[in-house]
Write a sequence for this structure.
């Protein structure tokens, strides 16, 4: 499904009002200085780049940030096979959540793609190496939702210790607890927090926030993170261990806060579970692939792990009723639907930051103006690119970054997008039209492309065009070093 922007009822009524004013004698039409732009000093106005939200529908937060520099569309796809051919051929930028995968084969389907921004912190659903080799910048948003994930982690830990979730369900199901013996049976497994040891794997932003919160509850906090410099434990008042085995052996509760990579897949498995204290708790709000779900299910059934809480899953969206889920019949398990990061404020902030990164790519240079490019090592200095390659010549001195506000935006004004006059693009000497909310391509009656072939590709030397077999792109390192695995889950 491909959904380009189109007109809104507000815009139509506004245009009718302007036409009526023009028909009245003695009245001159008022020109909105913000809607018309003069010619670009270094050449004529180029067509506007296409930016697509691959696996979602709501563009209301992204539109105010991108509407003056790009055409915005949404695809609502679960795989690249569901993405419209127009997006595959013309999209210069892509925004994506965690519900779609971009493998090397998927990336090769895009003909003009220059930047992919993951709306979130993890990029394990993108082949970052392949993207870099193709000249596609991959970015993420590492600073969002730190408080929300840390708060959710503590909520899950408290539920495991105090068994609030199970006790609440007993009351909801009508079970009556009338005496101390019944209460003892119902609350079996409840534990005191103060004095227990919480082991944190990965002391990034979220891991640090969890550690500080846990100390307030009386936990003795230890952590394992081989990529942090010495002394960080002293600044936070924590105990540091230098092997995962040592952390598992000392911890009454283990909480995972590291990214997923080829080095730590199934970090918690049958072997490492045997290294944990018998009856320990396990919490995972980082990445589902860190835990071998079959080994966890077996450990829960054998009471080697007393209880566990997972917000992330190896196969998402998670379905507890799926016949092939090893956790289907596991006892003492809390499962939530990858929602630890979410709050209304965090969701708006996250989407604004992701859209702002795309905007920086369009009006600036890749990778120089990008704030969170995770494969920057594949790009050399922007001086090797011709003028305007990354959109710097399109819109003059437009602001590169939108403020990260959590205030809800007003609905953007819009005018009709039609196929007349070159697919709805403005005539030379005029700026791009304002855009309204996304709607169906068929409903808008559009058959011609809204965005023509982008001159950023036509102006390139042949050796710089992605996909040219004649030469390797000179703006890439021929043999980039393998990115160092990180144990931070920001």
């Amino acid at each position: 499904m491909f959904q380009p922007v189109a007109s809104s009822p507000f815009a139509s009524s506004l245009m009718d009002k302007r036409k009526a004013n023009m028909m009245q004698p003695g009245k001159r039409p008022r020109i909105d200085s913000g809607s018309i732009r003069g010619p670009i000093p270094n050449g004529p106005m180029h067509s506007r780049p296409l930016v697509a939200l691959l696996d979602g529908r709501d563009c209301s937060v992204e539109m105010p940030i991108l509407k003056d520099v790009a055409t915005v569309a949404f695809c609502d796809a679960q795989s690249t096979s569901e993405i419209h051919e127009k997006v595959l051929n013309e999209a210069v930028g892509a925004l994506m959540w965690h519900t779609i995968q971009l493998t090397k084969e998927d990336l090769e389907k895009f003909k003009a793609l220059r930047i992919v921004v993951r709306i979130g912190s993890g990029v394990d659903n993108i082949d970052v190496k392949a993207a870099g080799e193709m000249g596609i910048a991959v970015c993420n948003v590492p600073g969002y939702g730190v408080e929300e994930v840390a708060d959710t982690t503590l909520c899950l830990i408290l539920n495991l210790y105090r068994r609030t979730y199970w006790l609440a369900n007993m009351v909801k199901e009508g079970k009556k607890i009338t005496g101390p013996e019944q209460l003892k049976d119902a609350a079996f497994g409840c534990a005191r927090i103060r004095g227990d040891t919480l082991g944190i794997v990965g002391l990034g932003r979220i891991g640090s926030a969890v550690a500080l919160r846990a100390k307030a509850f009386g936990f003795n906090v230890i952590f394992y993170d081989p990529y942090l410099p010495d002394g960080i434990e002293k600044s936070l008042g924590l105990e540091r261990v230098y092997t995962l085995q040592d952390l598992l052996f000392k911890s009454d509760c283990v909480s995972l806060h590291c990214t997923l990579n080829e080095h730590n897949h199934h970090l918690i498995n049958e072997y490492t579970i045997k290294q944990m204290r018998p009856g320990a708790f396990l919490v995972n709000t980082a990445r589902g692939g860190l835990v071998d779900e079959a080994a966890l299910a077996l450990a829960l059934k054998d009471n080697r792990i007393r209880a566990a809480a997972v917000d992330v899953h190896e196969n998402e969206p998670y379905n507890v009723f799926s016949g092939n889920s090893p956790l289907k019949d596991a006892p003492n398990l809390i499962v939530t639907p990858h929602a630890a990061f979410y709050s209304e404020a965090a969701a708006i902030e996250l989407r604004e930051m992701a859209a702002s990164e795309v905007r920086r790519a369009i009006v600036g240079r890749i990778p120089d103006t990008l704030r969170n490019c995770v494969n920057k090592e594949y790009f050399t200095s922007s001086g090797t690119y011709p003028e305007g390659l990354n959109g710097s010549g399109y819109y003059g001195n437009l602001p590169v970054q939108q403020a990260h506000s959590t205030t809800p935006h007003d609905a953007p004004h819009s005018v009709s997008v039609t196929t007349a006059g070159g697919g709805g693009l403005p005539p030379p000497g005029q700026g791009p039209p304002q855009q309204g909310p996304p709607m169906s391509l068929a409903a808008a009656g559009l058959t011609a492309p809204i965005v023509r072939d982008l001159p950023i590709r036509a102006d390139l030397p042949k050796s710089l065009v992605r996909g040219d077999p004649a030469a390797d792109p000179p703006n890439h390192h021929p043999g980039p070093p393998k990115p160092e695995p990180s144990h931070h889950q920001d």
